Structures are given as structure tokens and as C-alpha cells.
Amino acid sequence: HFENLLSRADCTKNWTEKIYRQTEVVLQPNPGARIEEFLFEKLDRKVPPRPTNGDILGQFMLEAAKEFGPGTPYGSTLIKVGDCQRRLGGAEREFLQTSSISFLTPLRNFLEGDWRTISKERRLLENRRLDLDACKARLKKAKTAEAKAALWNEELDKAEHELRVAQTEFDRQAEVTRLLLEGISNTHVNHLHCLCEFVEVQAMYYSQCHKYMQELQKELGRKSPHSLEVNSHPAGSPTDPSAFPQLNSPSPLKTDTLQIEEVQPPASGTRKAKVLYDYDAADSNELSLRADELITVYTVPGMDSDWLIGERGNQKGTVPVTYLELLS
User: Fold this and answer.
1) Count of the separate structural domains present in the chain
2) Is the separation of the CB atoms in 257 and 289 below 8 Å?
3) What is the rounded distance in angstroms from the CA atom of residue 274 to the CA atom of residue 118?
4) Bridge-partner residues for 307, per DSSP?
5) Global pTM?
6) Is 275 helix (H, G, I), strand (E, B) or coil?
7) What average pLDDT does range 242-249 have in this prediction?
8) Where is this region: Disordered (predicted)?
9) Over the stretch 180-217, which tens digit does the pLDDT of each residue have?
10) Long-range residue pairs from 217-223, CB within 8 A, at least 24 positions apart, any chain
């Protein structure tokens, strides 16, 4: 039982040490910053406040917005995103502080407090065991010499007394060490509580980040791309919002200038194509596809190269090229 307690204690110490070190890396990936914090701690000085990456990025965006003009579309968007990045940085800073207090500190207290006490008592127990072995050897030697001379009687009594004293001290130290080692179970319970708190803090941090990003998305989505003064910039310029592809927007065919029902097939240039995968039309301008069917396809001037006009009987609509195998 005692050897099992020793083994369990060593295992707890080793894994606690590894978890503690790796948690430090997760909370502060920069090794230079970790060394700086360690030195400040050893010098018993307060660690100076350090801005997070989100704080720095947000500050850069806000300063850029001042240079570009807060009234411009790019400048106003920079202000919104920069403010969100600063809030994310604040949430990260709060997460780091809370995790350090609720999770790292208890692990470090165990390694620097309880474990040092256990190690000290184990060393004392080892010394008591060595003393006990020496007394046993001396008693054995005295008993062997007892038959040779009566003068050894006094030495025998003395050796027996020393053995009783050493045995008593060893038993007492073994009991003290056993009680400390059995306390490892309480340490596991305490570390489990701290681990749950760490998970809650981490979940709260990511929830805050998700909330901030949702708020930013809603705020950016309030302003229609058509209201960003697109007429003041040439089409396709970097500041033209229409130049940026929107999510779930398959092609520039979905504009008012191209009506599918008005598109006529060219006199030549139509081809047959085999459909490779099923495709569900996103709107009335597209044509739904079923795998392995044959359709007629062609293109018209101004179309995106990733899309074609597809016909199946009286049905007509745009289809993605990647879903087709063009036949000769």
C-alpha cells in the first residue's frame, strides 16, 4: 500500500508539472514574455501591463482610419473592426488573468508547497530506514558475539535499545509520510475543481469573442454595399464593394443586366456536357442538375468563365463549370 502511494504521488507530481508548463505556453506563447514574467516574480515585483495582439491590431486600425478619413467607407469600417478587435483583446486579457489565478496558481502551490513537504518527509523516512538497517546489523553482530564472551551482554542490551528507538522513529516517520501521501486524493479533487473553473473561464472567453464578432457582422451588415458611393469609383477598383465576391454568390451573372429568359444561344458554339454531381439551383436564374444527365451548354459575351448557360428541354439557367464534363 505504501509503495502504491509513493508511485501515485510521483505520477501526480510529474503530470501536474507537465500540465502546468503547457498551460503556461497556451496562455503565453511568447517564451521571452514568460521569462520576463518569471524574473519579475522572483524579484517580487509586479509584472508591467502588456497589451494583447488584439489591442495592438485594434489601435493600428483606428489610427489608419484617422489617416484615411473616418467618413470614407474604408475608414468607417476600420473603426468598427478596430473597436471590435480592442474588445477581443480585453476579453483575452481578462481570460489570461482569471486562468492564471484559478488554475495555474493552485498547481504551482502544490508543486512548490505540498510536494516539497512530501519530498522532505520522504528523505527523512529514507534516513530513518538507513538508521534502522544499521541497528539491525549491529544487533545481529552483537548476538553472534554473545556466545564468545559475557562482556558483550552490555553491548547486546545497548543494541537492542537502539533498535527499539530506531524502530519507533521509523514507524512514526512512516505514518507521517503515509498520511501526506494519502492526501494526494484531496489534491486530485482540488485540481479537478480548478480544471472545471479553467474550462468555464475558457468557454466564457470564446463566448465573448463569438458575441463580439456577431455584433461586428451585424454592424457591418446594416449598410448596403450599394450605399457605399460606388459611383465615385471605377468599377473593379479596390474601394468598389461590388468588386469583392459575396459569400454564397456564385457569379456576377446575378445582375439586372443579364436576364436568363432573354439570352439566346449563339448560332454555333453549343456543346453537350455530362453532369458530374447533383446541384441545387440557388435562385431562378440557375438550373438544377442531376448527376449523369446530359445538357446543352454555351456561353455569352461578358459571362464569368466559371459559369455557362445550360439548357434541358424548355428549362434554361446558369450552371457551374466545375459540375460538368464537356463532351467533344
Assistant:
1) 2
2) no
3) 75
4) 320
5) 0.54
6) strand
7) 42
8) 223-253
9) 888 888 888 888 888 888 888 888 988 988 988 888 88
10) 219/80, 220/77, 220/80, 220/81
